[in-house]
Design goal:
Number of domains of chain B: 1
Strand order of the largest sheet of chain A: 3-2-1-8-7
Distance between the termini of chain B: 38 Å
Helix content of chain B: 10-25%
Mean pLDDT of chain A: 96
Shape of chain B: globular
Distance between the termini of chain A: 55 Å
Low-confidence stretches of chain A: none
Shape of chain A: globular
Order of helices and strands of chain B: EEHEEE
Number of helices of chain A: 9
Low-confidence stretches of chain B: none
Number of helices of chain B: 1
Largest sheet of chain A: 5 strands, parallel
Mean pLDDT of chain B: 95
Order of helices and strands of chain A: EHEHEHEHEHEHEHEHH
Strand order of the largest sheet of chain B: 2-1-5-3-4
CATH architecture of chain B: Roll
CATH class of chain B: Alpha Beta
Strand content of chain B: 35-45%
Radius of gyration of chain A: 20 Å
Strand content of chain A: 5-15%
Largest interface: A-B, 35 and 23 residues
Oligomer: heterodimer
Number of strands of chain B: 5
Chain lengths: 254, 64
Amino acid sequence: MKPFYGTQLPNPLMLGTAQYPSPAILEQAFRDSGAGVATVSLRRESGAGQTFWQMIRDLDVLVLPNTAGCHTVKEAVTTAHMAREVFDTKWIKLELIGHTDSLQPDVFQLVEAARILTEDGFQVFPYTTDDLIAGERLLSAGCEVLMPWGAPIGSGRGLNNEYALRAMRAEFPDVPLVIDAGIGLPSHAARAMELGYDAVLLNTAVARAGDPAAMARAIMLAIEAGQLAHQADPIEARDMAEPSTPVIGKAFLS
Amino acid sequence: MKIVLNGKPREVRAENLSDLLMEVGFSGRVATAVNEDFIPSSLRVSHKLADGDRIEVVAPMQGG
């Protein structure tokens, strides 16, 4: 696996911590899947935050705070600074939402915020679209990781535009690429890995499943299968049949 | 003085940000912003509050 800002991840699964039926089930999902990175957030202090933080620390995973819900550069930059202090990490999953219904990233503001945060010493994981030029601009702004969406957050639609994601992989062969958002099933995660993506980040597909811990484990198995398949150099699809059993030497019986 | 703490108006005695956190009972891991600007924990004691300040205090929370 490619290192993420110099850090080797234990495996390619980054798992969200929101929307689980209970803290115990969240914990079980992490333990059963072995996910090595947990995404977290910041909200107004209400008393519950300290217990949550202790539980995440006990999981002994890498922590990736987000700027979820931010709509302006200023808001995202301030949130990132607060997250760096609270979680004691330079990593930030930079989310700058541009559209209310699709939660599509505003790539123009994203590039600007990424530049500011990189100059401030952050290691930015930008949640972006599958647009190649946006990807290039983010790399020029100092990002060393790109996280294109598979589909809108929480939609579970999988990889909406496989053509674009394939092009992105080909365009940035040396950049760690993460499919962030839209994964609904293990097969979607496997597909992302088959395309050569380096990691998958998801939350809803696991947290909202009937049995989140089992789904987390299923996703991890799919990721491993997809990763292994990619390394094994799969065949190209073709339109016509090609006999797999040798034709030469067949007995003449008609 | 009157401030707005996490969106709610409130009357407080504290004169700096550090004392405010003590007064309202916010301990543990929190981060602070005053009037939309981040104030690092190292500057909380020296950060004097003014009437009408909008103060945000955030803590770790679940996220995707």
